[in-house]
Write a structure and sequence with these properties.
Blueprint lengths: L10 E6 L3 H12 L5 H10 L4 H9 L8 E7 L12 E7 L1 H10 L9 E7 L5 E6 L1 H5 L5 H22 L6
Helix pairs in contact: 1-6, 4-6
Organism: Dictyobacter halimunensis
Protein name: DUF302 domain-containing protein
InterPro entries: DUF302 (IPR005180), TT1751-like_sf (IPR035923)
C-alpha cells in the first residue's frame, strides 16, 4: 500500500541587516555546541531512567534558545563554481519535542530535526530561510502534534529574530 498527499508549506525567507558571519555567530551562540546525542541518550535509555531524569539530561545540553544544533553543513564548494556567496545549513531542534511528536505520529520524524539555511547573496546581503515548522506538521491532524509544532515554531521564530538582530514584538 502506498499513498501520496500534497501538502502546503509556508517557506520563510528573512533578510538581515547584519553581515553573514555575525548572523552565524549569533545563531550558534543561541543553539549551543553540537552534541552527540547518539552517545548521550542510549545509556540513559538502557538504564531506564525516568522521563524526568531524561528531560534534565537533555535540557542540560540545549542552548538558551530552547533548541540545539544537531549538525552544520557549510556549502563551501560554491567557491569552486565561481560563486562568492556563503551558505550554511543547520539541522536544529529539541529531542524532547521530537520524542513527544513521534510518540503520537512516528512519521513526524521526517521533520525533526528541522533545517534552516543562512546565506549571503552575490551582493553581500544575508538571509535566513526555513520552512514554517507548524505548516510542515499541519498534515497530521493531531492536536498534540500541532501544539508541539507551534511551540517549536515560536522558538525558531525567536531564534532567527535574535540572530538577525531584530526584536520580536509581543
Amino acid at each position: 500500500m502506498s499513498s501520496t498527499q500534497h501538502i502546503s508549506i509556508e517557506h520563510v525567507v528573512i533578510a538581515s541587516k547584519r553581515p553573514y558571519q555575525q548572523v552565524i555567530d549569533a545563531l550558534e551562540a543561541r543553539l549551543g555546541p553540537v552534541v552527540d546525542w547518539d552517545t548521550i541518550l542510549p545509556p540513559l535509555i538502557d538504564a531506564r531512567v525516568s522521563w524526568e531524569q531524561l528531560t534534565q539530561e537533555v535540557e542540560a545540553h540545549i542552548g538558551p534558545s530552547g533548541l540545539t544544533l544537531f549538525s552544520k553543513v557549510k556549502h563551501s564548494y560554491l567557491a569552486l563554481l565561481g560563486k562568492g556567496s556563503c551558505v550554511t545549513q543547520y539541522s536544529i531542534g529539541n529531542p524532547l519535542f521530537a520524542s513527544y511528536m513521534t510518540r503520537h505520529t512516528p512519521e513526524a520524524a521526517l521533520y525533526a530535526p528541522l533545517r534552516l539555511v543562512v546565506y549571503q547573496d552575490e551582493e553581500g546581503r544575508t538571509f535566513v530561510a526555513y520552512d514554517n515548522f507548524a505548516s510542515l506538521l499541519a498534515q497530521y491532524t493531531n492536536e498534540e502534534i500541532s501544539r508541539a509544532a507551534q511551540v517549536v515554531q515560536q522558538k525558531l521564530t525567536d531564534l532567527v529574530a535574535e540572530a538577525i538582530g531584530e526584536k520580536r514584538e509581543e
